[in-house]
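FW: tagging you since you asked about this chain on Friday. Here's the raw sequence from the shared folder, copied in full. Didn't touch anything.
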Amino acid sequence: MGLGWFGRTFLLWLVWITFAGGAAAEVFINEVDYDNEGLDQFEWIELAGPTGTSLDSYDLQLINQDGDVYRFLRLSHADFVFGDDTGTGWGFFVLGKLPPELGDADWTPSGWPDNEVQNGPADTFELRFHWGTPVHVLDYEGVNPFTQETEMTPLEDTNLELDQTLYKTGRGITALDFEFANTPGHSTPGGLNVGQVLDFPATTTLNASRPTERVRSAPTPFREGTVITFENAVSGATTLAVFDITGRRVCQLLDSWMPAGPNEVRWTGVDDDGERLPSGIYFYELRSPDRLRARGQTQIVR
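HL: got it, structure written out here
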């Protein structure tokens, strides 16, 4: 299911660029098994993601109908990078506990009990980045009034066996391209679901040691300041934010309309309050009006 452990050092040198012409492919919740009535065991959650994508920037929260987070999972602890399980640039990640006949999950979190996942009404899986930006927020068995879901299904995984799940079916590259189904006799952790086609994602992963025209900074390392340059294909709303190595946003450099063509922003190594940040590696993320997203990294040396 995974490509193996690439290591933190390798991940620091990745820049993801999503090409225009369609929605950006993202990691999403693809299949869950949580409500085996009479058994309530072997519960698991499967994510689908573009090949080469690391889970180091992702968290998963399990939220009950009262809005309480009853399980928080820092997915970086899994040390996982999506492989190519489909032949079309997609891989799968399974966390939890699988029945013995289905093999082992990619990651079983510490203390994960047999009946970890709650079964409604209206509970939520929230996949998000470390810094809090939602990626895929799924309400199941109805609408959870305490969350801001990106998707809701009234369906539930109610069965007496271990072979019925909630799963995505259809064709596309994003969560909302698919619909949920819960047909009995379906359970495919680590593989495509029944009736599912994952197209080649409109995402590629480049090594940042190669130059990219999307976004870069110089000088780096720096003491007093660095200039981040980027180019917009079209004019429009543009954001540029800086994050520390834990994924916490430390500085919002830009959130405004920017013209098409080359642009630049100077960063002096301070946070949103104007305080000097310590020496270390920092990441910046550009979101441009043509729906492109690019990331890079720089270093402060005090």
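FW: The first strand starts at residue 14 and ends at 18.
HL: agreed, and The longest helix spans residues 8-12.
FW: great, closing this out.
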